[in-house]
Write a structure and sequence with these properties.
Blueprint (H helix, E strand, L loop, with lengths): L2 H19 L4 H8 L5 H12 L10 H14 L3 H6 L3
Amino acid sequence: MCIKQRESRQHIILVSYIQEHGPGNWRAVLAKTGFSRCSKSCRLRSTNYLRPGIKQGNFSEQEEKMIIHLQDLLGNRYKSIFQAPT
């Protein structure tokens, strides 16, 4: 099995586990799913990649302009930039 197929299968398992049990106790994820990755890796993958509201892919031209405008306005406070209303 290639790496992409294995990761896709793991994504499905991780998402279904989180939907059933909720986010939290990431060490239990390893015990109950049989993953060979660490609990921190599962938590970060869930937070940064698998959440339903996360946009995948490149920024649109409008999003790029908004980021540049907010960076000019706020400086390098990235948390404030990415929490700003769109």
